[in-house]
Amino acid sequence: DRPLLVFAAASLAEVMADASDGFTRAGGTAPKVSLAGSGTLARQIIAGAPATLFISAHPKWVAEVEKAGLVAETRPYAANRIVLVVPAGSAATTSGATTSVDGDDGDAAIIAMIDRLLGADGRLAIGDPASVPAGQYARDALTSLGIWQRVEPRTAPVENVRVALALVARGEAPAGIVYASDAAAEPGVAVLAVLPERLHAPVRYPAALITAGGADVSADATAFLDYLTGPEGAKILRRHGLEPIDR
Amino acid sequence: MTDLSWLGLGWLGAAERDAIGLSLQVAATALAGLLPLAIVAGWVLARWRSRARIVLDVIVHLPLVMPPVVTGYLLLLAFGRKGAIGSLLDQLFGLVFAFRWTGAALAAAVMALPLVVRPIRLAFEAADPRLNQAAAGLGVAPLRAFLTITLPLALPGILAGTILGFAKCLGEFGATVTFVSNIPGETRTLSLAVQTLLSAPGGDGPALRLAMVGVVIAIGALVLAETVTQSMRRRLGLSAVPPSRPRRLA
Amino acid sequence: MTDLSWLGLGWLGAAERDAIGLSLQVAATALAGLLPLAIVAGWVLARWRSRARIVLDVIVHLPLVMPPVVTGYLLLLAFGRKGAIGSLLDQLFGLVFAFRWTGAALAAAVMALPLVVRPIRLAFEAADPRLNQAAAGLGVAPLRAFLTITLPLALPGILAGTILGFAKCLGEFGATVTFVSNIPGETRTLSLAVQTLLSAPGGDGPALRLAMVGVVIAIGALVLAETVTQSMRRRLGLSAVPPSRPRRLA
Amino acid sequence: MTIDIRLHHQVSDEFALDVSLTLPSRGVTAVFGRSGAGKSTLLAILSGLITPDIGYIAINGEPVVDSDQRLCVAAHRRRIAVVFQDARLFPHLTVHGNLDYPRRHGPARPEPGRFDAVVDLLGLEPLLARRPRTLSGGEAQRVALGRALLASPRLLLLDEPLAALDGARKDEILPFLDRLTREGGVPILYVSHALDEVMRLAGHLVLMDHGHALASGPIARVASHPMLAAIAGEAARGGMLHLVVAGPPDSDGLLPLRPQTMHGGEDPTLHLAAGGAPPAPGTAVRLRIAARDVALALDAAALDRAGVSIRNRLPCLVRSVVTEADGLVAVTLDLAGAEDGRRDDVLLARITPAAARDLGLQPGLPVLALIKSLALGPV
Amino acid sequence: MTIDIRLHHQVSDEFALDVSLTLPSRGVTAVFGRSGAGKSTLLAILSGLITPDIGYIAINGEPVVDSDQRLCVAAHRRRIAVVFQDARLFPHLTVHGNLDYPRRHGPARPEPGRFDAVVDLLGLEPLLARRPRTLSGGEAQRVALGRALLASPRLLLLDEPLAALDGARKDEILPFLDRLTREGGVPILYVSHALDEVMRLAGHLVLMDHGHALASGPIARVASHPMLAAIAGEAARGGMLHLVVAGPPDSDGLLPLRPQTMHGGEDPTLHLAAGGAPPAPGTAVRLRIAARDVALALDAAALDRAGVSIRNRLPCLVRSVVTEADGLVAVTLDLAGAEDGRRDDVLLARITPAAARDLGLQPGLPVLALIKSLALGPV
Ligand SMILES: Nc1ncnc2c1ncn2[C@@H]1O[C@H](COP(=O)(O)OP(=O)(O)OP(=O)(O)O)[C@@H](O)[C@H]1O
Ligand SMILES: Nc1ncnc2c1ncn2[C@@H]1O[C@H](COP(=O)(O)OP(=O)(O)OP(=O)(O)O)[C@@H](O)[C@H]1O
Ligand code: MOO
Ligand SMILES: [Mg+2]
Ligand SMILES: [Mg+2]
Questions:
Q1: DSSP string, E125-141
Q2: Model-level pTM?
Q3: How far does the centroid of ligand 3 lie from the alpha carbon of residue B100, in Å?
Q4: E149: left (phi over 0), alpha (psi -120 to 50) or beta
Q5: End-to-end alpha-carbon separation of chain A, Å?
Q6: Dist CA D333 CA A129 (whole Å)
Q7: Contact between B196 and B189 (Cβ < 8 Å)
Q8: D80 strand-pairing partners
Q9: Contact B171, C64 (CB under 8 A)
Q10: Cα–Cα distance between A193 and A180 in angstroms, integer?
């Protein structure tokens, strides 16, 4: 059997660390997890990387791998939300708890909130829509709100969530749109609003079992995926601010 | 932004042309700011005997040792609007790096530092101090002798450092994107634009094409630098003449 | 993997220690493979007069000009299991780069190439060809003269290139992660490990701590190189003595 | 007006320079000594390229190094130009650029026409556009000399500047250096292994060995130092005469010269090929007479009868007769009629023992010193 | 056995080397010419460091360059060692390493003891552990010379190797070079500006000017070339005698020598200070006699009466009497009784016009050439 090599989006670093531990303790083969950008990982799999399981931060990269005929089975694994964050302890948070913006009238509230936060020369920290999935969801949401044209020049698109969070946490940017899971882990930011899922394609982390050039699906990989999508996996996801997908 | 229409790069989109212009601007600014510093650092490293030299040496090498993202992150912490140095510069001179092309230039300069300093240092080490002694005997002050003898003699090394630095400026990605993010028209240099294209499925072709533009620019710079260097070396009587080898006569 | 327990790095996790050992292994392998090549390239660039030299010069500089990810991607395309060169090497010698530490070494070597070649080239340019002429007059064949005169005289430059290359190997990220991914214990070098820590919220502290380990390793290498270089220069009578300056006498 | 030098400098475990000298600050002082004696090191210390461990150096009373006062004037402030043993031309400048360097970047303000004069003297005109690397050995040394001359220094240090030059070129340059120091008042310290060069130019001689100054003094005094011959080889032996030009050149172009210190007795006039611009009558000149150029005779009248071609016949008294290690006899002569105190005029002859026996040489014997006029060399 | 050289090489727009020479492949050949004449360039071409534009060079019939055959033997295969004007020592090696370099890395296999002999001769013992940068000018040149000697070359090219050395050291080294070429059979091409050095050593002289060989031939012939004096200055003028040792040194240590070509007439024996190891009776020696060392007399008997110390009195016939530009009269002499065809023996005297008149000099007149024994120098 091929060694249990998992290619996972970098934002899943901690989830994967916990899951590996748990899986191993439960008697599974210790997985090796390579963490990098989903695009990088997808290209590598297409180029023949010996990965047995691919967990992408965006379905489109799984689609790319599937086009190359290397995917045996795809399963939805986790869901995430994108949130509007501000520096912890900033004036914006003192006005109240997380605003509920799920109603239709919420749109106007979000737009007003963003405009107010950015002020004259503030920038909105987002993942780079061109490369970072979180940024793509943010762009979609702002587009749905009808303000992307206006806001785009005021964004600070960054390569790395870590940097987006740091920008907000240190007040370099007065606001940012990041994954809820990332916001949860960063004490320096406060979540001002969870953006309604209807504004963007749902944030889903699909997992794909990889067949390397005709080789069978790895039993270890299937077992690990079962663990990830099982109750233990769900607990781990929640612990890190992600939602398991009910099937 | 620099007008690049004369380059006949019509086949590139406006965004790409912006990126190229920005890259050149960033590289030029970074090198202009970096060179005087690198010359001083190279000289100190070449001629000081103090053990403290090693501290400077380590600082100069740091950007090479650390992952580029770490360097960018540290730059962000220090030179961001809220950073210690950044806020100071902003207050004192209204100089802002965060999310500006100036920040891209700063990142490029920092990343290029080790590459620029080393050849300059080697050139200073190779410059014969006995020539400065001769100048002193002729009544010429040390600084003047440095400017008129050591510096001209070190020019090939300075040029070599400049070329390495220029190439690095074109290729710099990690520190730049981390420090000043990837804002089209403001901080999206050639390298960032290539990366952006590459991170979308199917972007390989355009990405490689744009990367080639960088290569072509670099070739131009290399040819220029080689030509200048060779003519300098020829004037010094040092041109790339191999140790005379037997040759069959006509 | 190299056993690093003697380093007393117990405060680092096993994964971190793995990364450090791997980085050293990768750097050593990369440099061992790169140096002979770089010496040949440096010599050719220094002594050939043919215009074709510029082609080699461009090739050497390419990894610096292109965004690291592009370099990594091209490596992946060429040296991957399915790549033209990669599959050939696999069939012929069973040599596999893809997703192995050997690939990380290859990526590091490629990225370090321009940094290593330039100082070596400068050193060869500074070596006086008249000494080789003297050797020829004594009946010594050119290659022998190269090995016994030019090469020893170029050693400080070779060492300088090695140090730059070593630092780059430690810091290399973009090309490595793109080419061989980020597999713990196999391709997750120090730099990749730092980046991995950093990409998770709250990883700043551990990331910076690990980055410092790289810095400390680099300092060690720098001190070693400086010591060796200075002793070489002293033996050549070139040690970093400033042009004698007035000093107040005791 | 003197140059005072007292210094100790440990160069290495094996070699230390340890000298105490008072040199005249006019004219040419020759520094003579074997290879490795410390001549170049002494020059480097004077010019400020090396700071001595301990020392006091003053030029005309103005100290440039004084370790008691913790004083060490920077090299470029000393205005002491050096022509090094290796030319040390600036490789990135043309010959013209090298020559012009002191004026462009230093304090030198040579009078107009001086540049052309120096270029002319040293024959540098065809080289002006060239780079140092393409120069021949002698050409490079000429450029280095020209560069130093154009720096308008207070003191000129020359480290074997003419070693790579042919005799004819030397014959041109030496009188120029002589004029430079006499008319321009620039003192020159001159290191050379070529004793005839030294002797033609220098008024003062420093004899160095193993880092020490064995002797220092007017050349006439030091010229007879036993170490001089040991270092310089046979050619070095000789004497020294102080003469006055006695009149204009005669019809044959020969210049009459008389000893300054001789009174009465036979006509002691010497005749010297006058050359282009003979000094005016009354001018004092100094001539070194190599021992190899001096023969002895007893009877002037018989000499004429013998048809001997040597016209310069100087009445002398034998001071000493010494048989030397190589078998020859060294005869030291005083000029006949010279005051007793004045012993700066001295002649040395080296003859075979057989000749010494035949002539019955002994101290006090009056003899004629026969000196070939040609041997006197230019003034 | 000869060294044949025919070549044309354009160095720059202004300078081309264009020579055609046949040199003996034994003994020392001196290359003499002013600064910039092309001497170093000639040596560089011989040694293979420069490939001439067109040319043919052969050593003992074996071509090393032949542009017709498109042949150019690599420098390191020629076994032609060069001592450069600049010492070109390997800076990263000690003096010992430099000396040992040809043996360790080249084909040189010097016989045992040779290393020590060379070190001894050149006085390098105390320098063996030193690096070239710390050597004085003369020390460096000695090391370079030693390195070349230890390369066991087929041909030795010396470019002013003794310029930075003191006379005493030269006096040691010159006889060694002489022995090297005579006993070791290694021909030497010797560039020097010091004519006395050249004359003491060389059997063959090449006179160069502006890239051309003005003259090339046995030294006695070329020594009277008019350009020689123009280049070398006055000291260069002179003649040449071929002598045979006539017996052991006398009680005074003087060696008797007789001209090879003289028959009958008065006793022409010359006496020379013999030095340490005098050549055995019957050995042929060659002596250069500088014009300045030769005086003339007409009457031998009167000479004795005059008590003249000069013992060497050679009967000669005046060949020519020429008044020269400087006002002096050059008198060329043949040995009395020499066969007419043998004109290799020639003496030159330069005397005042007054003396020439008094002596009534004219071609064919028998005269005595008075030569100070000291002036003969070592064999
Ligand atoms: N750095 C050094 N280390 C050891 N010895 C040295 C150093 N520098 C000079 N010396 C020695 O000091 C002595 C004096 O050197 P210096 O150059 O003054 O000699 P010099 O009289 O100029 O000789 P030359 O006529 O050969 O040029 C020499 O024996 C030389 O070897
Ligand atoms: N690369 C060059 N370009 C122009 N001229 C040159 C070049 N190399 C040499 N020359 C000239 O060629 C001539 C001969 O030089 P060479 O070194 O042979 O002279 P030399 O006889 O050895 O003189 P010296 O006695 O001064 O060393 C000189 O006039 C020199 O200036
Ligand atoms: O690896 Mo880099 O050098 O900029 O990302
Ligand atoms: Mg010296
Ligand atoms: Mg020469």
A1: GGGTTS-GGGS-HHHHH
A2: 0.83
A3: 20
A4: alpha
A5: 29
A6: 108
A7: no
A8: D155
A9: yes
A10: 10
Q: Are E201 and E3 in contact (CB under 8 A)?
A: no
Name the residue of E9, E11, E18, E195 to mutate for ligand 2: max ligand atoms within 8 A of Cβ: E11
CB contact under 8 A, C250 and D67: yes
pLDDT, tens digit, for every residue of D262-294?
655 556 778 776 655 677 788 777 777 877 778
> Which of A152, A155, A168, A172 to mutate to probe the B interface, most B CBs <10 Å?
A172
Chain Cα centroid distance, residue C76: 20
Which DSSP string corresponds to D23-67?
Answer: EESSSEEEEEE-TTSSHHHHHHHHHTSS--SEEEEEETTEEEEET
d(CA D167, CA A95): 101
Give me the residue label for tokens 């090695």. Answer: C162
The alpha carbon of residue C243 is apart from the nearest alpha carbon of chain D, in Å, by: 8
Query: How far, in Å, CA of E105 to CA of E114, rounded?
Result: 17
Task: Specify the pLDDT at position A97.
Answer: 46
Q: What is the DSSP letter of D335?
A: E
Atom of ligand 1 nearest to the CA of E136: 17
The DSSP letter of residue A197 is G
φ, ψ of residue A209 to 5 degrees: the values are: -85, 130
Using CA atoms in the order C129, C130, C131, C134, what is the torsion angle rounded to 10 degrees? Answer: 130
Task: Give the pLDDT confidence of D76-123 residue by residue, as tens digits.
Answer: 999 899 998 788 999 999 999 999 999 999 888 888 888 998 998 888
pLDDT tens digits along A144-162: 999 999 998 888 888 777 7
User: Is the pLDDT assigned to residue E379 strictly greater than 50?
Assistant: no
What's the pLDDT band for E87 if we cut at 50, 70, 90? confident
Q: What is the DSSP letter of A224?
A: H
Contact D159, D43 (CB under 8 A): yes
Residue with tokens 């071509």: E63
The answer to whether C80 contacts A48, with C-beta atoms less than 8 Å apart, is: yes
Chain E residues touching D303 at Cβ < 8 A? 302, 306, 308
Rounded Cα distance between B240 and C4, Å, is 46
- Residues of chain E in contact with residue B244, where contact means CB-CB under 8 angstroms, are 48-51, 75
ipTM (interface pTM) = 0.82
- Per-residue pLDDT, A100: 54
Q: How many CB atoms sit inside 10 A of residue E70's CB?
A: 10
Instruction: Please give the helix or strand (H or E) that residue D216 lies within, else none.
Output: strand D212-218
Go through C93-124 and write b for each residue having 16 or more CB atoms within 10 A of its CB, e for each that does not: eeebbbbbbbbbbbbbbbbbbbbbbbbbbbbb
pLDDT of residue E201 exceeding 80: no
Say how far residue A127 (Cα) sits from the centre of its chain: 10
Residue A204: phi and psi, rounded to 5, are -125, 140
Measured distance CA(E268)–CA(E257) in Å, rounded = 9
Closest-CA residue of A relative to B81 is A172
Residues of C in contact with E48 (CB under 8 A): 136
Strands E155-159 and E80-83, by their bridges, are parallel
CA angle at residue E227 from E223 to E228, to 5 degrees?
A: 40
| Residue at token pair 């061992």 | C32
Which residue matches tokens 């131009």?
Answer: B220
The pLDDT tens digits of the residues spanning B125-140 come to 888 888 999 999 999 9
Q: Which ligand is nearest to the CA of E231?
A: 2
pLDDT at site E265: 56
Nearest to E145 by CA among E203, E95, E104: E95
Tokens 């001196």 correspond to: E30
Asked whether the beta carbons of E57 and E157 are under 8 A apart, the reply is no
Sheet holding A175-179, edge to edge: A155-158, A124-127, A175-179, A82-87, A189-194
Q: Which residue has the higher pLDDT, E300 or A56?
A: A56
Which amino acid is it at C248?
R
DSSP E346: B
